Amino acid sequence: MRLISSGRHHATFEFGDLQVISLRDGYIDMPPTRLRDENGRALRELPAAVPLAGDNLRLSVNAFFVTDGTRSLLIDTGASNAWHEPTMGLIYDALLEAGIDRAQITDVAITHKHQDHVSGLIAPDGSEAFTELERVWVGAGDTSVFTGRLEPIRDRVVPVSEKVAINDWATAIPTPGHTPGHTVYDIRSGTGHLLAWGDTVHVPTLQFDQPNVSWELDGDQSQARAARAALLEQLTRPNHFVAGAHLDSPGIARVTPSANGYALEYLAP
Known about the structure:
The chain has 269 residues and is mostly beta strands. 11% of the residues lie in helices and 35% in strands. The chain has helices at 91-97, 115-118, 204-207, 221-235, and strands at 2-6, 10-15, 18-30, 35-36, 57-67, 72-75, 107-109, 135-139, 157-160, 164-165, 170-174, 183-189, 192-197, 214-215, 240-244, 252-258, 261-266. The longest helix has 15 residues, at 221-235. It is globular and about 50 Å long.
């Protein structure tokens, strides 16, 4: 995995025979009281290593575009104008900056149903953001989100209820816990695996070192914690990388064992 170019809102990586482009949708600020210990109680003390923006945790929001030069896959779509304006909804600027024509996007993979991941399917003016969209891959437990604003997309939804190949290099893997349909996408190239996740980790400066810390909005905290543990262990294998929706932008890193938890090494500044 090698960084080959970057801009204000994007970073492009060479990943074997694939290109992976991180797209910055913006950020959201959340109170530290969202963090939970193993008993589901608010975390009593925040480690000094966890930075705050004022009194809040600042969570980066990233999406990822993967292409082999012929086929492509957009993983998550950001918030559009549905949530936390004006700090979010930048994915369209990021796509333009990266030289990606929205009309070339036929397949979108959604990690889960929350607004900062799925709302970008609809542009701020109410039109479909991706005019040639053919398929939206999403966990079967999260398909209920395709009503109201997202109703026009419903006929192209492909529910994921088990591990399934999207194409020759992308596989959808159900990882329920944060939501019933939370899904991770395993991107394979000739040089390794990239696991693209949504809300497996919210606070990277804390939850790698202390992976038992969960998030108030995890629908099933125990299940989310187990999913995180399994994925972190998988990521310690050789030639494995992570692309995280809430890792610090651009959100692509290596994971290694460290003390009782894990260490995160970003691949780009």
